[in-house]
Design brief:
The complex is a heterodimer of chains A (363) and B (498). Chain A is mainly α. Chain A has 15 helices and 4 strands. Chain A is globular, with a radius of gyration of 22 Å. Classes of the chains: A mainly alpha (363), B alpha/beta (498). The interface between A and B is medium-sized, with 23 and 31 residues.
Chain lengths: 363, 498
Amino acid sequence: MSQNTLATKRKLNLNLGQYVYIIIFAALFLFYYIRSDGLTVSAITNILRHAAIAGILSYGMALIIITGDIDLSVGAIMCAVASFGCVFANYLTDKGVPVGLGILLTVLFCLVGGTLLGFFNGFMVGKAKLPAFIVTLATSLIFRSVAKYSATDDVTTKLLRGESANTYAMNRIETGDGIRELMSEFGKIRLFSDSMKLPILGIVFILIGIVLIYITTSTKYGKRLYAVGSNAKAAHMAGINVEWTRVSVFTIAGLLCGIAAALWLCDKGKIDPATAGVNNEMYAIAAVVLGGISMSGGKGRVIGVIFGALSYTLIDKIIIALEIKSTLINDSIKGLILLVAIMIQILGPQVKNLIASKKAKKA
Amino acid sequence: MAILEMKNIHKAFVGVPVLKGVDLTIQKGEVHALLGENGAGKSTLMNILTGVHLMDKGEVTFDGKDISNCSIRESENYGIAFVHQELNLFNDLRVYENIFFNKELKNPIGTLKKRLMIQKCLEVFQKLGVEIDPNAMVENLSASEKQTLEIAKAIFFDAKLLILDEPTTALSNEEIDHLFNLVENLKSEGKSFIFISHKMPEIFRLADRYTVLRNGEFVGTGNIADTNAEEVTSLMVGDAFDSSDVYQSRQLGDVILETQGLTGKAFRNIDLAVRKGEIVAFTGLQGAGASEVLQCFFGELPAFSGTLTVDGKVIKHNDIHKAMKNKVAFLPANRKENSVLPDMSLLENMYISEHTLSGLKPVINKRKERAKYAAQKESLSIKANSEEDLVISLSGGNQQKVFFARWLNTEADILLLDNPTQGIDVGAKAEIYKLILSLAEAGKTVLFNSQEIPEIMRVADRCAVFYSGEIVKVLEHQDISEHTVMLYATNAIQAVEE
């Protein structure tokens, strides 16, 4: 075999391993398609909508994992920011702030709030050099518990918290054009209304994905993330400010959590801090790994995360289509798929090498 | 009476002979210095003695018994103890647990007899005059206490011959005195020592006899009392290295880098003025401070006092980014640890440093970067297929060239190279040194740290020799010789004068 064909063959093998996420997504989609006869276009595009919020959290997780760290607090940040976003929106409504300005301020509140909480994580990990696992475990406990505690009558008045007990909701107003109503209108937008109904949440999810793909593949900052995850000491000796790179990546993840929180409010208008975003950090990690990003850092692409997140939403859909009585089985299927994916990614090359070396011995 | 006799030892690694008929005889109750440059075969010989490697030919007799090609465990049982340079202690265990590791005293049901073990430790420590608490955690011990603990451990299990591999590198003068007293005491009790060191004053203070190896061959043996540091150095380095080389003296520019009394953690009072286009070599024994001075110039290590002036500017609060802005580049030692970004391509590995300087233009211009890479590849003759290949797919020499390209790409004027030929083969080494010369020709200033004196002789305009953190001598090109450098690097000058 000539050198050239050998090289191309090697490249092909490599690429197959890298694109496991597409294979898994395609397989799941095919299964879903077969099980639910008469699948409509809007049912398909709805997958995007349901993947959006968890998917955006996965993006932040992906960037952090590329630098070799981890963030267990993404679900809690989203939950806390959305909770206090409700309170803030109700406060604005109560003060009679014009609706347009109110929406703008509420969204801004979510984005800034998420960014600040992310920055706190990043500062602790990057500058204070504490282990990311512990820092974000601690902050996730703190953020969620504050959100839950504040949902009691002792802390927040019913007016600010919204209607029901132990949850937050944005107040409706009688004329029907308050912050909640208009945000909800936004959340229901479908583009290209006739045959292709694209939900706005899904579009935001994909747009952010495109921006992040561009950043990670074509900017100096993006390459810096890979360098830090690949070998932090060498990155430092090459002139990269490793500490601030770490701070920045947690901050960006916080901002993405803030965006997810704003979308949550558009989608639902209310939030239960005891359940919202619970386990989302685990789904995010799973989506990232399913998308082919290595937990040891420095390897993988953001595009995989889009498919990873979509695959997980598909599993939910499939279970509904199968008409299994309880959706409580979802997690075990998700877990199994994750195990299979990681086995293909890690054992695949080893098996290939084994076969290759046996062939070489025979020759 | 000889306690150890190693005769006509031969050993080759994958066909390359590293020991070619070496003899070593140790008398009972003596300290025997085993001397030779890096790569002379000292470690291999000791590894054969302690059962780490098998020899190809030869015989080893210890205490009257033939112990040729014994196992590690057997050599321990015979009473040979190897006190390694990097100590083999468990930092997270207590002192007594380290001593009894894998040889714990147990009750019938398998629980440990802690009190008895501590008691026995104390007895040995008292006998040796050592003041260490058997209950202390090893990580809290000082370097010298750890060293002492290793020796105590060997004595505890009745070692007759102790191998001390560069035992003083991490010790202060006072601690060295303490260690040497301990060795003297044990010697008087009939214990024997093989003492491996590069420091002449210590050898002449402690050793009774010596054996010199050079390039895997036995060169000579004798009584320390009958020789002097100069003679031993000659034996170690052999005939003068033939430097029929490519060196040509060049026209040098103005002073571009200057230090006055620069003092940091591992170096003191560095006074140096380097001119534009000059090649200055730093050399010295491992840990003499040469590498640390380069790291300080690059802002990686702090200076406590003194001044550093680069291109007329006094640098205060140096850091890596500042150094890079001042057109200083640093190629660190230990390529794998400090340079290689294993998950990234050749292209990415090259441009990553320059990008930290041009961060204001955030988007990568791929076409331009590829062109730059192609130019560097051409001028450094990097042997690689595609710029998209991972950097770890290249050989060590080619990897190192990629990192040269990384720094040349930043358009630095001052190149600091820490051990640039580490772990690369002879051919690639020659290329690297040719490259250094041509860079200097093109007006770059090069400071490099190396322990390979023949290489220094081929390229350096001047050579600064370090000994325990200070520059003891700056040699001009024509004065650089293996012999002179070794005299200063081992501080044999001091021993000769005494």
